[in-house]
Design a protein that fits this description.
By secondary structure, the chain is an all-alpha fold. The chain has 9 helices and no strands. Helix 1 crosses helix 4. The chain starts with a helix and ends with a helix. This is THO complex subunit 2 N-terminal domain-containing protein.
Length: about 160
Amino acid sequence: HAELHQKFLNYKISYPLNVVYTMSNSQLTQLSTFDEFRIQILPLLLHLGPYCQDRLVYIKLIRICTTIMKTKYDDLSKLDSSSGDSDELYENLLLIIDELLLPSLSLMDMNGCMAIELWNLLKLFPFDVRYKLYAKWQEDTYKLSIHLVQVKNEVLEKSKAIL
C-alpha cells in the first residue's frame, strides 16, 4: 500500500476547487486497462477511503470490480502465485473492497441496492476470503475514522433501544 500512497502524495492539483477550469478536454483520456486505472485512479480512491459517498462512483467501481472478477477469475483455482500480474490485480481488488467499498457502505445512508451490488461482488470470492474481509471490517475498519466510530456507536444505541 505504501507505493500507492506515495504516488498519491506526489500527485499535484493546481486548483482543487475548479478542476474543470484547470483541465482541458485534450488532457482527459479514457482508461482502457486496469493498469492505467491502478496507476491513475486507485491512489485517489484510496485517499477517499470510507468517504467515497458518491453513489454513482460507488456503483461503477463495484461493477468494474465485478466484471474483472468474472472475466479474469472465473475459476479461482487457476490463480497461480507465480504469475505476478494477475496476483497483483487480485490483491488490488481486495484492497479496493477492504479500504473503500466496505467502509463507505458503513457511512452511506442505507440503500438496499448498494448492498446487493456489493454482495454480487463479494460472493465471487471464496468464503474464507469473504470472512477475512468481514472480520477486518468489523474489527479494524471502525478505528480508521471518528465518523465510523460514531456510526458504530449509533447502531449500538439503536440496538439497545430495541432490546
